[in-house]
Every structure is written in structure tokens, then in C-alpha cells.
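User: I've been going back and forth on whether these two constructs are worth ordering. Before I decide, could you fold them both?

Assistant: Sure. I'll take them in the order you sent them. The first construct and its C-alpha cells:
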Amino acid sequence: MLVAIVDDDRLQAEELVRLVRRSPALGRSLTRSSGRAPVGAAPTGRPDASPEADGAGGGPAALGDVDVRCFDSLDGFERFCRGGEPAADIVFMDIRFGGPDGAEGIEAVARLFPRGSATQVVYVTGYGECHSKVYSTQHAGFLIKPAGQEAVDEALAEALRRRAESSERPVLITSGGDVRVVLPRDVMWVESHRRLLCIHTRHGEVKTYLKLARIAEMLPDRFVHCHQSFLVNLDYVTSWGGDRFVLTDGRTIPISQRRRAATRAAVLAYARTVR
């Protein structure tokens, strides 16, 4: 899970990172959805690591399955969003960045995350009069600086709830001049070949021109990007051999060397192990 904090005040950004990393709401959500360890358990990075806020997607402050990244400018964050990187799941967006109208953050959200986007936005501001302006955009919360732990926990819980609901909604795919309605639970696996994307469902194939990373953003966490060209729904996996998946229809899907560690972690988090 990727949480982005967009704020030109470094101290405020660092404090928000600390509150997000400590939030039990985030840990409960990850545990419920996939059996992963809570945020406070088994850190993958230094527990005291400070975020980098360099405006270009500074070094992540990663803990468990959560990657928190800080951006100290809207330009840097927009470059990150449009640069083909995995989309942020949750964005804490400051509203004012020094412009004359004082609502640059709201304008950025309108551009980057139109209504229907799976990314959940929580606005953060020191100016209460901005409250009414945020309703022109899709958002999950509104925090007044300095935000406390309880307020961050509540905003995260609501953002995660909305994110889970959004990921299970039908996806509209343009295919051969028609618009097909695809339910995430029906998708077994997805294959990309150059610009052509083939979505294999229980009811047949849906072909379209779309990047694999884009469809991955719209699907639930049980979908694993196990290979540069493949995305697999773990609900349909009957066998896992470390370097391949075997699905319920007998299809074998490769797991690339580069993605084996991440795939293994996803499988072990998703399934219970009996010894």
C-alpha cells in the first residue's frame, strides 16, 4: 500500500508520517484484507527512518506493507503520478501551496483524481475556511493542522473503507467498439502483450488497449503482479511452485525472478498455512 503526503511544510509532513505509521486503523485494515502483519510489526525499514521531502518522490518511509512517501511540491507529486509509477492508495493533500487563490491542492486533486478514482484523498490544512471548497472533489476526510493521532486514525479508517469498496466495483472496459462490464471477482488473470491487454474471466476474454499497471490500480489487493506481463487473481490459484502459478483452468502463469520475493510475500499474506 502506498500512502503519499503532499505538503510543502517539512515538519508537518514528518509529523504526519509518524501518525500514519503508528495508526492502528492501517494495521487492522491490512490484517483483515489479507492476513498481513499489522503496521507496527516486523518493519522492513528502520523504525526511526525520517521521510525525504524533496519534491520528486523522496525515499520511502516503509514499514510492513505500507510505503509512505513525501512530496514537498505539487509539481513533484504530479510528475510522480504521471510517470507510470504505481498509483497512491491514499493521499494526504495540503490545500495551500503559496498561490494567490490558496486552493492549489484542491485543483490538483480535481486533475489527478476525478470522481470514481480508486485513490482516496484526505485534505490537510491550517485554514478552516477552505472546508467548503473541498466538496467539489472526491475526498475521504478533512484534517485541520496540527492533526492528532485520533483524527488521523479516523481519516485513515474512512479512506481504507472507501478504497476497499471501490476496488470491488465493476470495471468498464472498452473492447472492440463496445463497453464491457467486468467484475473483479470474475477475473482469473490478465496478460499484457505490448499495447494489447487480455483480461481472462470466468466467462471469456476481454481485449483492450490498456497498460497492465493501469488495470492493476483498479483491482483488489488479491491480484498479484507476478511478472512484467501477468497479473493473477489469487482466488483462482490451485498450486504455487515458487516460479509459477497453476490456476483452476489448468493455465500456468510464470513468476519472474525479479518479482519472486514480492509474490511470495503476497501469497503467504493472502493464504493461511497448515503445517
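The second construct, handled the same way:
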Amino acid sequence: MKRYVLPALILAVLSSSEAWAHTGHGAATGFMSGFAHPFSGLDHVLAMTAVGLWAGSLGRKAIIGLPASFLGAMVLGFWTALMGSGVPMIEVGITASVLGLGLAVLLNLQPPLILAAGACGIFGLFHGYAHRAEIAPALSAVDYGAGFLLAGVLLLGCGVVLEGAVRRVPAISRIFGSGVALAGVALFFV
């Protein structure tokens, strides 16, 4: 099972048609659109996988805490957007999440769980808000939201499993972190 995680992750990244998953390229149509959305952009794939990878490196409580914080904040960001509230600089926040999470993995940051979960929550807020940009006005937000949450769980889980697979060779984790951080820098210029 573990030997298939890295190739699957690479395939997911390479199959992303655009760097940004929230470009407004067509209205979402339901659960499947919500599920596909996080996989359609490099920013979401890298950020969510990095959260899982970082969580795995921080230990047992973080494996639940960081993904839960990210997902909970994603729901809050999505709901905030549905209510019509504005969150400034969404694209900058998402790009900062890719850069920040990549650096956390690269540098093997080991902050207290509350700080790591807080950072993941802030980043998740931006990602959730961006998911709302794809929904057609008459679409059920519940169906779409359930789809993107399930995809988020899968991406976060891929990161945790990836960390477990590379634990014996920490350099691999750092290489992934440096790649995510470099992608974050590049996304600032896209």
C-alpha cells in the first residue's frame, strides 16, 4: 500500500490542469464537482498534502489535530463565503499557505500543537472560502461541500501516509517540503 502513495500523489499533482483550483472556470454542479475541485489545482493538492505530512511528523495528536483544524476552518471559510462575507486577499492567503506549509515541512518545524493547528486553521479558512467561488447560485452547497471535504480528507490522509512512508529517510520529507515551498514562491508570480 505504501509504495503506491508517492506515485499516486505525483499523478495527482501532474494531472492538475491549472495552478489555481479556483479560477472561476465554470460553475460547479454538485458532489462530484466539489470532490474534483481540490484535485484541480496545484495549490490545494500541495497545501493539503503538506498539512498531512507536517502532522505526521509532529506525532499522534497532531495527526488528528492539524487535519481537523484545517478541515474545520475550510468549512468555516466556505460558510463565510456563502453568507456573503468578505475575506480579503484570498489568493494571497492560499499562496502563503503553500509557501508556509512547505517551509514547515522543509525546516521540520516542531511548534506546540496549538500553534501548528492554529496555522493550519488560518490556511484552511482561505481554502474553504475559495471553494465557494466555484458554486453556481442555485446549487446545493451541502452536496458540493461534502464533495470537497471528502477530497480534503483524502489529500490530508495522503500526506500523513507519505510521512509514515518516508519517516526512515527524513531527507525525502525535506525534499518534498522544499518543492512545496518553491511552488508557493512560484504561485506568487502566476
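Notes on the second construct follow. The chain has one domain: 50-187. The chain is about 70% helix and 0% strand.
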